[in-house]
Write a structure and sequence with these properties.
The complex is a heterodimer. Chain A contains four helices and five strands; from the N terminus they run H-E-H-H-H-E-E-E-E. By secondary structure, chain A is an alpha+beta fold. Chain A has one domain: Thiol Ester Dehydrase, Chain A. In chain A, strands 1-3-4-5-2 form a five-stranded antiparallel β-sheet, with no helix packed on it. In chain B, strand 4 and strand 5 form a beta hairpin. Chain B has a domain of 78 residues: Roll (Thiol Ester Dehydrase, Chain A), CATH 3.10.129.10. The mean pLDDT of chain B is 96. The chains are: A alpha+beta, B alpha+beta. Chains A and B meet through helix 2 and strand 2 of A and helix 1, helix 3 and strand 2 of B. Strand 2 of chain A pairs antiparallel with strand 2 of chain B.
């Protein structure tokens, strides 16, 4: 007997509204310093470190939309019957480096929801794909996030 | 054997230099500020320990992913670039811990000028808290 209802599974394929972000040298420098980068090109903000897009496309939400533990609710997702978030994984493919002045478009799609029977009960997995492109459609990177709920 | 960043001589089984990280509250604050991440487990010690049951303030998972990538990206420097990154956060780690990154060459393709690495972030007990794989391409 599965825990995923047809209503939850109907969210597969759902897309978030596209987000456009302008990359600044200041944002790259902040990210580089916060992550302890040692290479000059990153600390000076000439080019973004490989995981900079994680910060660039993190949702910017108003205070009154945060939960009491300070987390923003991802509106792309359905209300899952299991809520304890476990380990997550990322798979990122890079096509073109990110530099100051770049205008980047991020499109997020909920590409899969499935369940497995774990040792201590059911587990729900879901996958979200983030496609980052330039305004003319040139691919910059593709990131697939897999998350696990129990 | 420590790997040299040269596709001509790089061998499967060669290891990357290890790097140690001892993040403090200031670095974790900066990281979460850059993300706009207000999750209390990263700065509210009573909440993290009493409500969520953690041992301390939790180091942000994607920051560990960044350090994992640094293990190979700092090694290759301007001789190439990261083409693919896969990682997962398997265990929590906490402010006050010293973490170690490193890795091993698992494949070399001299025609495509690419190399694959298995990478790790370990805690002081030797647990791999964040395993991953990275592919780089040499220029």
């Amino acid at each position: 007997m599965g825990v995923l209802t047809p209503e939850v599974l109907a969210y597969i394929g759902r897309k978030a509204p596209p987000r456009t972000e302008v990359v600044t040298r200041r944002d790259i420098r902040k990210y580089a310093i916060a992550t302890g980068q040692t290479q000059r090109k990153y600390v000076d903000g000439d080019v973004a470190p490989p995981l900079f897009h994680v910060a660039l496309f993190w949702d910017v939400v108003p205070l009154d939309e945060l939960t009491p533990d300070g987390v923003s609710v991802d509106r792309l997702l359905p209300k899952f019957p299991l809520e304890k978030a476990m380990a997550g994984g990322l798979d990122i493919r890079y096509h073109d480096p990110i530099r100051p002045g770049d205008v980047l478009i991020g499109n997020r799609t909920l590409t899969n929801i499935y369940e497995k029977e774990g040792r201590s009960g059911p587990l729900i997995f879901y996958e979200v794909v983030l496609e980052v492109t330039r305004e003319d459609g040139t691919p910059v990177l593709t990131e697939k996030t897999t998350r696990l709920l129990r | 054997m420590t790997a040299q960043p040269d596709i001509g001589t790089l061998a499967v089984g060669a290891t990357l230099p290890e790097t140690r990280y001892t993040p403090d509250n200031i670095q974790l604050f900066f990281y979460n500020a850059v993300l706009w991440n207000a999750h209390r487990i990263h700065y509210d010690l009573p909440y993290a320990t009493e409500v969520e049951g953690y041992k301390g303030l939790v180091i942000a998972g994607p920051m560990l992913g960044d350090w994992l990538v640094q293990a190979v990206d700092n090694w290759i420097g301007d001789r190439g670039s990261v083409q693919r990154v896969e990682y997962s956060n398997r265990m929590a780690s906490f402010i006050g811990e010293t973490l170690t990154t490193g890795g091993t060459v698992t494949a070399v393709d001299r025609d495509a000028r690419t190399a694959d690495f298995d990478l790790f972030v370990k805690n002081e007990s030797g647990d791999v808290i964040t395993p991953g794989k990275v592919t780089v391409r040499f220029d």
